[in-house]
Write a structure and sequence with these properties.
15 helices; EC 3.2.1.86; GH; 486 residues; Aryl-phospho-beta-D-glucosidase BglH; alpha/beta; TIM Barrel; GH_1_N_CS; glycosidase
């Protein structure tokens, strides 16, 4: 008879914290030799329910490069973490963070991506950030490429479509691994790598004027080059810092069938395969068989170098991280469109949704955790999960965000259930510990933070930080290791 000691809660070494991205938080886009990035040429969206992350072509790129302001490009200003990092990290420590997920801006280290020698001022900035984290015993979890790359690599190579970018990326990864080998234990390669299927923001390749089939060819070829670069980065890290761990990062969107009709169930399976394909490659080290049919039916040919498949097989990731915001619905007879700006599937009538149309499904997180654990048997890490909402700062500088507390509580409850199910869950970094510029729409009004930042959509404000009610709630969650959720 099989039996195992009952698990009743989160492990003692569970990594609680928060997550950010350089292009949404740092600002200082022209400071200390930093180069322009792909994230900083995407204009702010006109409609908050429809993101603008793919709206870049040769004309808009030139227009953005010629514009030396941040008026239409709020990611250039972020919330000035570059100059507020000590204050912000002190607030994270006050909440009790065990880990802080941040990304390194590639263009701070290699402004064009083509330099032989790194920009010392950029490296020194992250030295200071890691010093501050170490002061409070907070582990850094570092994303190597979070939706940004030097814009020169788009101009010269059309981003990841060209294999030459692999060399540039791995010159950068080797540089930061050597510099921070004694500072960083946990690394991620590409943020939400599966969103390469959506285009420019993740691949750096301009393909908006192409046919659907041509776009698919560009995007899957680009992500193949990222797979190879990720495997090479894994090899580098194993040689430079053998005790460090490196993971993949997926935007996890579980797909439900619209009905119990077997054709809908099968359609949902296909959609889920297209989501899991990326972790299949990075965690299992090989292209899954089911993608052969998809590639054949869509006229996609992946050009590979001789050693690519060997590299992928030899250097899979150590763990799987993912973001979780929503689930999707699909059916062969069509479903009501989901209007959320990152929801590609149908609307689920059983779920509530945020003001931005993102459907809220805490139980889907437990489902996703079990699916990923059963499929890969590798440690999992939830590195993004949160609620974007319009927050009101009161006259006495308070923010009463019970709606955010409710959202986080419901998801953490389901995380706990998944751990009891037997899932190996390393940690949880909610998105985001303080208000930052929205990825999808580049607005400030869509606030995720537990800390309010005084800045509006036009960039006006003092940038002062104020603790929301959720700050004090999350503090108790961490202190109790997830036992106190009320």
């Amino acid at each position: 008879m099989y039996s195992k000691e009952s698990i009743t809660g989160f492990p003692k070494d569970f990594l609680w914290g928060g997550a950010t991205a350089a292009n949404q938080i740092e600002g200082a886009w022209q400071v200390d030799g930093k180069g322009l990035t792909t994230a900083e040429v995407v204009r702010k969206a006109e409609d908050r329910r429809h993101g603008s992350m793919g709206d870049v072509n040769a004309d808009t790129l030139q227009e953005a490069i010629a514009d030396h302001s941040d008026v239409h490009y709020p990611k250039r200003r972020g919330v000035d973490f570059y100059h507020h990092y000590k204050e912000d990290i002190a607030l994270f420590a006050e909440m009790g963070f065990k880990v802080f997920r941040l990304s390194i801006a590639w263009s701070r280290i290699f402004p064009t991506g083509l330099e032989e020698n790194p920009n010392e001022a950029g490296l020194a900035f992250y030295d200071r950030v890691f010093d501050e984290l170490d002061k409070y015993h907070i582990e850094p979890l570092v994303t190597l490429s979070h939706y940004e790359m030097p814009i020169e690599l788009t101009k010269r190579y059309n981003g990841w479509l060209d294999r030459e970018v692999i060399k540039a990326f791995n010159h950068y990864t080797e540089t930061v691994f050597k510099r921070y080998k004694d500072r960083v234990k946990y690394w991620l390669t590409f943020n939400e790598i599966n969103t390469s299927a959506w285009g420019f923001h993740e691949t750096g390749a301009m393909d908006g004027d192409l046919s659907t089939q041509e776009q698919l060819q560009v995007r899957y070829q680009a992500v193949h080059h990222q797979f190879v670069a990720s495997a090479i980065a894994t090899k580098q890290l194993k040689e430079i810092a053998p005790n460090a761990k490196i993971g993949s990062m997926l935007a996890r969107m579980q797909t439900y069938p619209a009905t119990a009709n077997p054709v809908d169930v099968q359609a949902a399976q296909v959609e889920d395969q297209k989501n899991l394909f990326y972790t299949d490659v990075q965690a299992r080290g090989e292209y899954p068989e089911y993608m052969n049919r998809y590639f054949n039916e869509n006229g996609i040919v992946i050009n590979m170098s001789t050693d690519d498949e060997k590299l992928l097989k030899q250097y899979p990731v150590d763990f799987i991280s993912f973001s979780y915001y929503m689930t999707n619905v699909t059916g062969v007879d069509g479903v009501e469109d989901g209007i959320g700006n990152m929801s590609l599937g149908g609307r689920n009538p059983y779920l509530k949704e945020s003001e931005w149309g993102w459907q809220i499904d805490p139980i889907g997180l437990r489902v996703s955790l079990n699916v990923l654990w059963d499929r890969y048997r590798k440690p999992l890490f939830i590195v993004e999960n949160g609620l974007g909402a319009v927050d009101e700062l009161t006259a006495d500088y308070k923010v009463h965000d019970d709606y955010r507390i409710d959202y986080l509580r419901l998801h953490i409850e389901q995380m706990k259930e998944a751990v009891i199910d037997g899932v190996d869950l390393m940690g949880y970094t909610m998105w985001a510990p303080l208000d930052i510029i929205s990825f999808s729409t580049s607005e400030m009004s869509k606030r995720y933070g537990l800390i309010y930042v005084d800045q509006d959509d036009a960039g006006n404000g003092t940038l002062k930080r104020y603790k929301k009610d959720s700050f004090f709630w999350y503090q108790k969650v961490i202190e109790s290791n997830g036992k106190i959720l009320e």
